[in-house]
Amino acid sequence: MAIATAFDLIIVQRPKSSKKQPMEIFKNGGTQQNGKSNGVFVNDDHKSLDININKNGGTEKASSKYEEKYKPSENDIVEGKGKYTPGILGQLLLSFSVYTNGSKILNTHQGAGTLTAVNGIRFISMTWVILGHSIGFGAPNASNLATFFPKMISRRSFMGILNAEVSVDTFFSLSGCLLTYLVLKQLKKQKGKLNWFMFYFHRFWRLTPPYMLVMMVYIALFPYLGSGPIWKKNGLENNYCKDTWWYNLLYIQNFRPITDQCFAWAWYLANDMQFYVISPILLLPLYFNKVAGTIVTAMFLGGTTIATGIISTHYDLGLSTFDKNAMDYFNNYYIKPYTRMGPYLVGIYTGYILYKIKCTFKINKFVNLLLWGVFTAVASLVLYGVYDHYNGKPFSTEVASLYNAVHKTAWGAAVCWVIFACATGNGGFINTILSWKGFVPLSRLTYSAYLIHPVIIQYYVYTRKQMVYVDDHQMIYDFLGNLGLSYAAALIVSLAFESPMMGLEKVIFKRGQKK
Q1: How many CB atoms lie within 10 A of CB 77?
Q2: Res. 261 pLDDT band, cuts 50 70 90
Q3: Which of 53, 127, 388, 454 has its CA 20 to 30 A from that of 137?
């Protein structure tokens, strides 16, 4: 990274200021280069060139030898425009440049046809994930947990944290929607043909190198980073993941019990990759035949809903990992693809609709307000409708099974309505907020933030020298600190692991280059 950045700044980015084209002289005696008045003619030796100004404002060169010496050649470069163009090896090296990669990450430009509201949704959802993990990971080391937790549950507002698991379903919805919208546009552009090798390779290459590299650094170094009475001297992973790391590499670790998993929070990546692998079964019917595509999507949605209900009833599951039968809930429901695909399917169909209508669909003002009200009510019921269950009126097995079977899909539908409304010009001030350019860089860092934030939180928790008395202020400070440090670390992770791999792919496969 250091070598690449030095090469970038010194050789590529630094303008060739010593090579300038000769300037034209204004009739008032000034000089002009690229349409700008400079007043002084400076040659490539940075010395003044004698010029005689005649009374009519014309000019004559002092000597023909200057004319010959400063005659521009084909190798001369205009200052500020000419830059060294590296060859293939230089481009490979530049993939690791902090300057170039940092500029790309921090760039707020959003191209035409971009679903701009997705940036805000992605960052806010990642913030929600970090909030839930900040409280969940820190709770076991709270000295007043026995009194604090019941107090929090009695607050209806706390359901937004207790039920924060649906924040992951937001990402499933986004993933399905963006995949469908972009792939169908590409299929149309290429008349129904797609390079399926690159379809899968790009996804694997996009996710895997930063994922594996963060795992490597975390597993190897984490045991040596801290100390204290509750510090895990052998790290947080069983046997340093010696027998389980390859499950992560193949994205199948979600079929193992959580106690045997390495890098446990990456269960989401396994699900998302598995959905991606089978997505052509849904995408191709949608592209070639609307009816067939709709039927296939509906069949998948029906299958995942029924499977979830049966599993929930069989294991008598609660409503979250904080509820009864927590291990069965996590192992048999929470991390399995056949129980989590509902929001992804809703996202896929939303992406298809946006593709068909080309993001142009004007809704009557009153109908629009009605739809916003309906989906707001749906999202609120998903989040806050479980309040009675945790406060003395637990749901029956049948009601809990119904909730588990439909609530994630319902949440995905609410999220997809926001995407649809904002993309079609029916989002109003909500679209203005979610499309704020400041969300663009933060959105780009979301993947790295997801990978690194549990490491940041757990380091903070396990380096404490004593248990902490938890209250609202403590939670707020812990959360804001974890959020800020996670995104700071995410920038480093992105510059070191994520951006270089994306740059290498573009150089090797010439992705993104116009022919």
Answers
A1: 17
A2: very high
A3: 388
